[in-house]
Each structure stands twice: as structure tokens, then as C-alpha cells.
Design brief:
By secondary structure, this protein is an alpha/beta fold. The protein contains 11 helices and 12 strands. Strand 1 and strand 2 form a beta hairpin.
Length: 303
């Protein structure tokens, strides 16, 4: 289909919508004879009569009616293409892909919301793509260039990654209120001295790396890949497991969860914003990093 064909179809569509050749002159800014020539050329191009025109008025033939329906579909598709092309032009170079570990929305030391708000004020028309990922997926997505910035534990840093520490998350061992370890006074005796075995929730991407070496009677009985799944299992009363204190606070406040030997099991995990060393940061990525930087507490840049 050539530009000439599109021109003929445009004239045809306008003639139909205006109700005739003479009434379409103003809309097309063409003479009646020129419009008539275009209609005749279109009939030659498609190979059938598309309308009856004369003293009796303008009327589409059955073939012309079907052609008009097809032309409408064609021009709707062209409009959709133009809109998509415009969106691509608007967002090209202004797309920011973020990968974030789950469960951070309740961490008061960290606020991606404020960083995005600042970004929206400084950079218009930025298309943001945000995915919640476990640490191992963050690491691979960063390495493969699927995301611009990763926000998660700094343990995933490699030589190819630049890391800016932004806060440290406190994590503690928890059990539910109906678990036998729920009484703080007897936790140490039951957990360490009793010799009983306790079902433990392990995060799949960490395996047993968070299982305390000084507690040898924990049995990995469940494997999860998100903080929410770990909380569900712990709340069932059958398992114990580690949760970030900020994430567990909502259930701790309602007495549904209890910390287990916090003086022994609590530890902190450094979190950072990371990007590939060979990746040229967009203006949007730089704004987000700059907004997250003031959150650093006791940490600094790490290469």
C-alpha cells in the first residue's frame, strides 16, 4: 500500500462521512472534479464499484460499505500506532527500572516513596518500572542489565557493582503467641537447653545461612522466597523464623508475634542502592540515588 493509496482512502472516507462528493469539498479543500477523479482512481485500484453518484444522490454499494468498514479499522490502527510511537518518543531515555527486595514498605529508615516524589518534581514523563525481587534475582537482574538500580542487602555486591549503603535493617527470631517459645521467661531453657527440635522457616534464597550456629536444634521445615510468606508460616504457630523488626511490628503490637531471645538472635543487615559500574546512569537514577543517600546511618559508599 503506497502513500497514494492512503490518500485515495482518506478522500473516500471523508466523502462517506460528509454524505457525498459536493458536501466534502470544504473538508477536503478540493474541487468537485478532483474528488471525482480520486474516487474513480480508487475504484480502479480496488477493482469494483464503490458508490453510486448522480442526480439520485450519493450511495455506497455493498462493496463500498465493506470497504468503508475496513478503512475505518485501518485508520484506527494508524492512530494507535501514532499514539504508541508518541509514547515511545516521550519516554525514550526517560525510563527507570528499579528492583527492590520485598517487605521494605514498613521500614522507616527507607522511603523510596519520597525519592520517587522528588523524581516526579525534577523529571517529567519518566516511565518507572518497579519489581519486587529476592536478593538472588536482584543480583542476576542487575548483572544482565534488566534493572538500572537494585535496592537490597549489600551481600549481593560484586566487583562489577557500585554500592551506596543507605540503612541497616534489624532482624530478629520470632514465634507466634501460641508457640511453646512464646513465654520470654522460658525461651532460653526451652530453645537452647531442652534438646527439643523446633521447625524453622528458611528463606530459599539464603537457605540455612541465617540459622544461628549457636542453636543446634532447629530443623528447616519450610522454605519461602518472600517476607510475607515467612510471616504467614510463623503466625501459624508451627514454625519460628527471622523477620525484620519493622515488618513484624504490626503483629508484635497485637501480641500475635513474640521475639525469641532478642539479645542473642537480633542482628543487622546492611542495605544499599546498587548499580553496575559500566552502566551510564540516567538523570532519573541519579535523582533517586541522591534522595536515598541522606538515609545512610553508620554506613558509607562501598565499591
Amino acid at each position: 500500500m503506497s502513500d497514494f493509496d492512503l490518500r485515495l482512502l482518506t478522500v473516500f472516507k471523508t466523502v462517506v462521512e460528509c454524505g457525498g462528493l459536493s458536501t466534502s469539498q470544504s473538508a477536503l479543500d478540493m474541487s468537485l472534479s478532483n474528488i471525482s477523479t480520486h474516487m474513480a482512481n480508487l475504484e480502479k485500484r480496488v477493482g469494483f464499484k464503490i458508490c453510486n453518484r448522480g442526480r439520485s444522490g450519493f450511495k455506497l454499494t455493498p462493496g463500498g460499505t465493506e470497504l468503508y468498514a475496513s478503512v475505518e479499522e485501518l485508520f484506527q490502527s494508524i492512530d494507535q500506532f501514532q499514539n504508541k510511537a508518541w509514547c515511545t518518543k516521550t519516554h525514550i531515555g526517560k525510563e527507570l527500572c528499579l528492583g527492590i527486595i520485598d517487605g521494605l514498605i514498613s521500614e522507616r529508615q527507607f522511603s523510596i516513596q519520597k525519592a520517587i516524589q522528588s523524581l516526579s518534581l525534577q523529571e517529567r514523563n519518566v516511565l518507572i518500572r518497579m519489581d519486587i525481587m529476592p536478593p538472588n534475582k536482584l543480583k542476576s537482574s542487575l548483572a544482565e542489565g534488566d534493572i538500572d538500580l537494585a535496592i537490597g542487602p549489600t551481600s549481593i555486591v560484586s566487583k562489577a557493582v557500585v554500592c551506596q549503603e543507605i540503612f541497616r535493617e534489624k532482624i530478629t527470631l520470632y514465634c507466634a503467641k501460641n508457640h511453646e517459645l512464646s513465654e520470654p521467661e522460658t525461651q532460653q531453657e526451652r530453645l537452647i537447653r531442652s534438646g527439643a527440635t523446633f521447625d524453622f522457616v528458611s528463606r530459599g534464597y539464603l537457605r540455612e545461612s541465617q540459622q544461628p550456629s549457636y542453636i543446634d536444634n532447629l530443623r528447616t521445615a519450610a522454605i519461602v522466597h518472600s517476607m510475607e510468606a515467612a510471616a504467614m508460616l510463623i503466625l501459624s504457630g508451627k514454625y519460628i523464623g527471622f523477620l525484620p523488626d519493622h515488618f513484624a511490628r504490626r503483629w508484635e503490637d497485637t501480641k500475635e508475634l513474640t521475639r525469641v531471645l532478642p539479645s542473642m538472635t537480633s542482628h543487622t543487615v546492611p542495605f544499599g542502592v546498587m548499580y553496575r559500574r559500566d552502566h551510564k546512569l540516567s538523570r532519573g537514577a541519579k535523582v533517586v540515588i541522591e534522595q536515598l543517600r541522606p538515609m545512610v546511618s553508620g554506613g558509607g559508599a562501598s565499591d
